[in-house]
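Please, structure for the following, as tokens.
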Amino acid sequence: MNEKPKKLINKKGLRLDGRKPDELRPVKLKVGILPNADGSAYIEHGKNKILAGAFGPREMHPKHLQRADRMVLRCRYHMAPFSVPERKSPAPSRRENELSKVIRDALLPSLFVENYPRTGVDLYIEVLQADGGTRCASITAASLALADAGLPMRDLIVACAAGKVDNKIALDLMDTEDKIGAADVPVAYMPNLNAVTLLQMDGKLSPKEFDEAIKMAIEGCKKIYDIQKEALKTKYKIIEQEEVEE
């Protein structure tokens, strides 16, 4: 006998974690936490816990990967073996390789790569705990790490997803909703430029639902963007205070 599918939204219109369909999970951001990196950031997005470290710009090695007219951005997204309930192999998976490329491509439009020919920036993203939406949380943290490294940027990039659960469009899906829900639409966005740098969809949506999901995801991005800017300001307020005390 087949089990009845779990209800993701109850009669009161609340999701499994008590959120309304258009509510974000709690987001915490901290900048400059890895002393050995040129720039770093840490994000807690719901139960996701992710570290991002940026190294560079520096001379590109191996030299055959250098570009005479631009900087090269390399990105490695990796999930720690203990980040999910069932231990994951520490070896890079096909999904991790794919997300490394997706995150890199989402971040590139924000960078002035032409200003740093023959150089490279290495970006390392380590997922310490995963609970759905790690690609979006990783993009948000990685963009802050690049800004913390002092790279000139057109704008910070922030990412958030919307999806379809129990025939309703909902913001910022957690792991259970992502697995059982009907669709997931991750969006990366530069709010000041009103520019989308990543748009993907997994599942099926009508054109009307797709438009609603994008609009909801962008609204979520704008809310996280304010937290991003505050995290950067907090770091430099601390630096300023330390200089005054000296």
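The chain has one domain: 27-224. DSSP finds four helices and ten strands in the chain.
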